[in-house]
Amino acid sequence: MDPVSLTPLDERWTEPVAALVADPDVRRFTRIPEPPPAGFAGAWIDAYEKGRADGSREGFAAVDGAGGFVGLGLAVHIDREAAEAELGYIVAGHARGQGVGTAILRLLTDWGFTELAAQRLVLVIDAENHASQRIAERCGYQLEGVMRSTHVKQGVRADVGLWSRLPSDPAVT
């Protein structure tokens, strides 16, 4: 795997984000609407840019050593007063199974603890998304429990796991 880095998400990433949004596996395990409305990728990026400006969220494009898009690293919600953030990550189809998700989450976690000075980082992972659960474990997140029937998409309710990491948790290598 090439080294992965995070760069601020902006309009130059609209095309690869649109490809992510079009991926049925991505839509299955995320809060992306099904079907996504026209122009969703651009509007989603705009929302993260506005969140960057007001401090409520942050979005990063994940790129490989050659600058190619391999996914997203997201601070879906930042609560600065509580020193908490909900994080998320999405790996592009061509980059799955190569450690990219783990690299994204490690970078995002480091960013959350250093740049945000977060005292608690959380992940909300669909109970059926076993690959994402393995990434969380590899990055030192602990499953706190399962929130039953909490995520609704197309009238179908799903269970999600609540995972967390604190700065005092053991370092992961």
Tell me what the structure shows.
The protein starts with a strand and ends in an 8-residue tail after the last strand. A seven-stranded mixed beta sheet has the order 1-2-3-4-5-7-6, with helices on both faces. It has five helices and seven strands. A hairpin with a 2-residue loop joins strand 6 and strand 7. It has a single domain, classed as 3-Layer(aba) Sandwich (Aminopeptidase). The model has no long low-confidence stretch (mean pLDDT 94). It is of the alpha+beta class and 173 residues long. Helix 1 crosses helix 3.
Give the SSE string: EHHHEEEHEHEE
CATH domain topology: Aminopeptidase
- Count structural domains: 1
Q: How big is the Rg?
A: 15 Å
Low-confidence stretches: none
CATH superfamily: Gcn5-related N-acetyltransferase (GNAT)
User: Into which percentage range does the β-strand content fall?
Assistant: 25-35%
Distance between the termini: 16 Å
Which CATH class? Answer: Alpha Beta
Descriptors:
single chain, 173 residues, alpha+beta, Aminopeptidase, seven-stranded mixed β-sheet, 7 strands
In short:
The chain is α+β, with helices and mostly antiparallel strands and 173 residues long. It is 31% helix and 34% strand. The chain has 5 helices and 7 strands, in the order βαααβββαβαββ.
